[in-house]
């Protein structure tokens, strides 16, 4: 089992400067990738060269092991340049963070994954959602099967919404064994194994450049030791609260970055736009000033929520409700992000919906915040049950 020092590390002084520079570069191509749904391979080459793919890899294995707040800031900044790139990056960060916390993956396998992540572009992400089951977060057994044979595990199944599939080196596949009493868990599937196929199905409203295609497994044979963590289904009933918190916080930071990019574009537009009948910029009008103030208030509140909780976790100042707190942050901050972008659209009308301006892309991307697990109804039900003494 992996045994690690999980204390957060203070980021280097130039880290956020490097991140900001990359985000500005990614922004120059984001509209093109969004328009044709192409994958931004070049962005990940730049991230690897800037040593930004190993931020949640443990220091014991050569990574930077940054804390929740620093990683949130990196994700937010990258998302302000290209949200699709940020989502793929976030999933990679989460897989390493979760593996280092769980200490359940075979140590030799995990150390090799870390070395590969340091040496080149070796991204990984989970493959969990299925056409029939939907998201496993709402319960149920996966249809994807893993059959143990003398030569290894034989996997068969169909996964959807596999974010980053064009570039992933490994898929962490959620599957059930074919034993009489099936176990459920994660299996590591390299993309170059025979029987692994990507069906290019992703054609979405937002996050169009994430390459979230279907993963098809047809008698894909992996070594026995690539069963990362398999247990009876009942043993998965109590997930690690900090893993859940990281998922919600980092997704919150991502969509905060999109909303801030929309805010920044709107500020520039309102200062530059001077209708002939006004003789001054739109930024001088009280109506526009008031609306911008509403946006600023939403973003300020979200900053306090995201980074307040992230710093609490980094300082180990949290209790057993930390996951529910982080889910609440996600519910509030993603709602704020959507409202902030919508306010901008309402303010300027048709120009905001034109593909000549990035605001319509920011709006399409920020709407995707609603579909990430945990979804709003599940969050509110958990909060309500706790308040009523039923949870």
TrEMBL record:
Family matches, as Pfam families: Acyl-CoA_dh_2 (PF08028), Acyl-CoA_dh_M (PF02770), Acyl-CoA_dh_N (PF02771)
Residues covered by the Acyl-CoA dehydrogenase/oxidase N-terminal domain: 21-93
CDD domains on file: ACAD (cd00567)
Keyword presence, DNA repair: no
Keyword Nucleotidyltransferase attributed: no
Positions of the Acyl-CoA oxidase/dehydrogenase middle domain: 130-219
This protein's UniProt keywords: Flavoprotein, Oxidoreductase
GO MF entries: flavin adenine dinucleotide binding; oxidoreductase activity, acting on the CH-CH group of donors
Residues of the Acyl-CoA dehydrogenase C-terminal domain: 249-373
InterPro entries xrefs: Acyl-CoA_DH_C, Acyl-CoA_Oxase/DH_mid-dom, Acyl-CoA_Oxase/DH_mid-dom_sf, AcylCo_DH-like_C, AcylCoA_DH/ox_N, AcylCoA_DH/ox_N_sf, AcylCoA_DH/oxidase_NM_dom_sf, Mito_Isobutyryl-CoADH
Domain of life: Bacteria
Coiled coil region boundaries: none
Cross-referenced PANTHER family: ISOBUTYRYL-COA DEHYDROGENASE (PTHR43831), ISOBUTYRYL-COA DEHYDROGENASE, MITOCHONDRIAL (PTHR43831:SF1)
Protein name, entry field: Acyl-CoA dehydrogenase type 2
């Amino acid at each position: 089992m992996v045994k690690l020092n999980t204390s957060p590390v203070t980021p280097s002084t130039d880290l956020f400067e490097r991140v900001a520079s990359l985000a500005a570069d990614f922004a120059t191509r984001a509209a093109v990738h969004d328009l044709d749904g192409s994958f931004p391979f070049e962005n990940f080459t730049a991230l690897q060269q800037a040593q930004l793919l190993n931020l949640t890899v443990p220091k014991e294995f050569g990574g930077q092991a940054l804390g929740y707040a620093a990683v949130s800031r990196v994700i937010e900044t990258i998302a302000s340049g290209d949200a699709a790139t940020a989502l793929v990056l976030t999933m990679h960060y989460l897989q390493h963070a979760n593996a280092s916390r769980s200490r359940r993956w075979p140590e030799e396998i995990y150390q090799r994954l870390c070395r590969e992540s340091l040496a080149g572009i070796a991204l990984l992400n989970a493959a969990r959602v299925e056409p029939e089951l939907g998201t496993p977060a709402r319960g149920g057994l996966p249809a994807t099967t893993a059959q143990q044979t003398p030569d290894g595990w034989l996997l068969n199944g169909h996964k959807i919404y596999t974010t980053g599939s064009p570039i992933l080196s490994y898929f962490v596949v959620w599957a059930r064994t074919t034993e009489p009493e099936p176990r459920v868990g994660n299996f590591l599937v390299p993309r170059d194994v025979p029987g692994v196929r990507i069906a290019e199905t992703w054609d979405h409203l937002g996050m169009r450049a994430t390459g979230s295609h279907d993963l098809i497994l047809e008698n894909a044979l992996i070594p026995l030791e690539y069963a990362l963590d398999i247990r009876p289904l009942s043993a998965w009933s109590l997930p690690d609260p900090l893993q859940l918190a990281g998922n919600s916080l980092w997704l919150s930071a991502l969509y905060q970055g999109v909303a801030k990019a929309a805010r920044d574009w709107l500020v520039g537009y309102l200062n530059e736009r001077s209708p002939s009948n006004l003789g001054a910029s739109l930024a001088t009008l009280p109506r526009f000033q008031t609306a911008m103030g509403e946006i600023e208030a939403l973003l300020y509140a979200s900053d306090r929520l995201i980074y307040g909780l992230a710093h609490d976790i980094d300082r180990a100042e949290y209790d057993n409700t930390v996951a529910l707190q982080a889910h609440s942050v996600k519910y509030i901050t993603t709602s704020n992000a959507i409202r902030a972008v919508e306010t901008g659209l309402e303010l300027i009308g048709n120009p905001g919906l034109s593909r000549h301006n990035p605001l319509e892309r920011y709006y399409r991307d920020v709407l995707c915040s609603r579909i990430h697990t945990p979804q709003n109804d599940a969050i509110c039900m958990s909060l309500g049950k706790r308040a009523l003494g039923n949870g």
